[in-house]
Design brief:
The protein contains nine helices and 13 strands. The chain is α/β, with parallel strands linked by helices and 302 residues long. The protein is rod-shaped, with a radius of gyration of 32 Å.
Length: 302
């Protein structure tokens, strides 16, 4: 028995008529009849009792039909599953992300991706930049959402968004009635600074901005996370320079100001392993770019 013969036999039983079965299969009736007769000879049993223009399915025929339908349904499902996997409609992706992205583009990406590919499993892992790079290189995660620079030649990336920097001051600060200030205006202020260990990229960028403005910041307090920096500024511990993610928190006692110096924005990129050209990865990066193009930072001053 082969799958074609089983399909022929199943069509005859299902339609209850050789002519209709042949039409449904797109073949002539005589070859269909010969195939069923050949099947009966091979099995050594009568599958159909024929009488002029009608037939009756024997017990052996009913058993074969039941088993054939299970087999054919399984084959059809396997074919459909393989095709869906091949075009990225099923499967599993492990996504790394830095802690700021849930307040910017990550929710929009996940919502859009799940709406388009509901049967693809997404596993999301919050990870620091260096950990994501290692996991990408080792194939532990498929895609990373992180901040450059990324020095690994084993990875490639695409920029999704660029977050502007803002100046943060307590709401009762003398500068709080401004909408825009220069970094130089913070020269005498105590700073709440992103730590070098916890947020090395933002720490380096803030130090660079202050030095370009002609001063070394006087650091009153270190913190690792954006919402911690924001809460410390709101509590009056000092001022800060921070990515615009901070506007998502609606932190009490905090006032955000645009920066007239126009420091370079802080990118968020999607990163994947070079040569990992899976359809799933391509689909995710396409959806990520679409979601990112629709994203706009909320609550920016000015």
């Amino acid at each position: 028995m082969d799958l074609r013969t089983l399909r022929y036999f199943s069509a005859v039983v299902r339609e209850g008529h050789f002519g209709r079965a042949a039409a449904s299969l797109g073949i002539a009736q005589p070859p269909l009849t010969r195939q069923i007769q050949k099947l009966e000879r091979e099995l050594g049993v009568v599958l159909l009792h024929r009488s002029q223009k009608r037939f009756e399915v024997t017990q052996a025929g009913l058993l074969l039909y039941e088993r054939a339908r299970r087999l054919l349904d399984g084959v059809e499902q396997a074919e459909a599953d393989v095709r869906r996997l091949g075009i990225g409609e099923t499967g599993r992706l492990v996504i790394g992300f830095v802690r700021s992205t849930p307040f910017t583009i990550l929710p929009g990406i996940v919502v859009r991706f799940r709406a388009t590919y509901p049967d693809v499993e997404l596993e999301l892992r919050e990870m620091r930049n260096p950990d994501q790079v290692k996991c990408l290189e080792n194939g532990i995660i498929d895609i990373g959402l992180l901040r450059p620079p990324i020095s690994s030649r084993a990875l490639q990336m695409v920029t999704l968004i660029r977050e502007p920097f803002l100046a943060l001051v307590p709401a009762n600060h003398s500068l709080a009635d401004h909408s825009t200030i220069s970094i130089r205006q913070l020269v005498a202020e105590p700073f709440v600074m992103y730590s070098r260990a916890g947020s090395p990229l933002i720490h380096a960028r803030v130090m660079e901005m202050c030095r370009r403005a002609g001063f070394e910041p006087r650091i009153a307090q270190y913190a690792d996370q954006i919402h911690t920096v924001a809460s410390f500024v709101g509590a009056g511990l000092g001022v800060a320079l921070s990515p615009s993610t901070v506007t998502s928190f609606n932190m009490p006692g905090l006032h955000c100001l645009a920066i007239s110096d126009k420091p370079a924005a802080l990118p968020v990129v999607a990163v994947w392993r070079t040569g990992n050209a899976s359809v799933l990865v391509r689909n995710f990066t396409r959806i990520a770019r679409e979601a990112a193009s629709a994203w706009r930072p909320q609550g920016l001053p000015g």
